[in-house]
Design a protein that fits this description.
Number of strands: 7
Number of domains: 2
Strand order of the largest sheet: 6-5-4-7
Number of helices: 10
Largest sheet: 4 strands, mixed
């Protein structure tokens, strides 16, 4: 027979969780339950152990609903990213793999976030910090820098998470040595995208000659042996 007290606690959890959004934080639950942060942490820890909710990160203070879950795990993860980093952009190998430029399957979702943001880790998310100048440049070139074709779209919060185009994701990777670096043998860059790579390199101040091993030469209207006057200085 189920212990009545335990049953009451589980019923209480169900009642609370039906009122909570798919992704919520500690403060949200404190207000809903009219309790103290200390008591809320104990309750949420118990629910996590029971599988009713899941931690979004080791010290994030954000939780995913598992009981009465309506959104996909990817969508919940996107909501957590946007909660912590509204300017975040999907980048690197996550973009390259999704567009078929590499067969290497990333173990985490790679995301660029402002360097000025407080660094809060999320499970299965690889954060790469970029200066605000980088985000400004992407915004200035958003017509070519951001994926507007919904190639990675699945619905909900995931669609609100901005994503780099594969050309910009590749150039951004090679412009920095703080993340996964692709090997030429691991990449298959469509010839139709070579101009886009050249343009991204020019905008981010990367010497296009460094892409020779990837099959992209410097020929084209946007290429030059000299570094672009638009070069970003970090």
């Amino acid at each position: 027979m189920i212990d009545k007290a335990a049953k009451a606690k589980r019923t209480s959890a169900i009642q609370y969780l039906t009122q909570l959004p798919e992704v919520f934080d500690l403060g949200h639950f404190v207000l809903l339950a009219s309790t103290t942060p200390a008591s809320a942490k104990v309750m949420l820890s118990r629910w996590a152990a029971q599988g009713l909710i899941a931690h979004a990160g080791p010290h994030s203070g954000i939780y995913y609903k598992r009981l009465a879950q309506q959104s996909s795990i990817d969508d919940q993860r996107a909501s957590a990213i946007l909660t912590l980093y509204p300017a975040a952009m999907v980048s690197g190998p996550s973009v390259l793999h999704a567009h078929g430029w590499t067969t290497q399957i990333p173990r985490s979702l790679h995301v660029n976030v402002p360097a000025t943001s407080r660094c809060v880790q999320l499970f299965d998310v690889a954060l790469t910090r970029r200066p605000m100048k980088w985000f400004t440049r992407v915004h200035e070139q958003k017509a070519s820098a951001l994926d507007h074709e919904s190639t990675l779209a699945t619905g909900g919060a995931w669609d609100r998470l901005r994503k780099l185009t594969p050309a910009w994701a590749l150039v951004d990777l090679l412009a920095h040595a703080d993340g996964w670096q692709p090997d030429p043998d691991d990449l298959d860059i469509p010839e139709s995208a070579h101009d886009a790579v050249r343009h991204a390199a020019e905008c981010l101040g990367v010497d296009i000659r460094s892409f020779a091993d990837f099959g992209v030469d410097e020929n084209g209207a946007s290429a030059s042996k000299e570094r672009s006057s638009n070069e970003l200085i970090y």
